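Need tokens for this chain, all 193 residues.
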Amino acid sequence: MTKENEISTNKELPLEQREELLSVLKARFEKYMNRHEGLEWTQIQAKLEANPEKLWSLNEMETTDGEPDVVDYDEEKDEYIFYDCSAESPKGRRSVCYDREALESRKKHKPENSVMDMATAMGIELLTEEQYRALQKLGNFDMKTSSWVQTPDAIRKLGGALFCDRRYDHVFLYHNGADSYYAARGFRGSLRV
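Here are the structure tokens for all 193 residues:
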């Protein structure tokens, strides 16, 4: 575990903020039952209350406009899986290049941050292409924006990075230079609780 990750996962929300977040998550859970059929909020809430550092990460997802929601349950590990479910790529996580190496390689017009640094600081994982496609089966996401996804090492070593979006009722995977950044491209994360 990196020092940055240790710092981010030792966070705990004040009681009032924790209750407010749980209320928002419960309302979203009830509004979008198609994303988590067969799951019960009371069990999810109990898991969240027992893991304050995960609640802190969900708050980070929420405050950057990710609109996290439960999308799956891993029975083997007894973990609920949250994804960012905002209609478009989270507003508070756009205009960032892929990783620290890409950020440092830019000579001019550097973005303020990178996807991988932000995800680590938030205590979340960047969605894989497979996870992104699974999310798209639950609704129509990124119809005007795009989202960076985890990039295989072989592509990243050559300077590239991958992103996805939904256009023409299809999910597309693209490539770009890892040092590129756009106002309409952010990233979506996942969190296991």
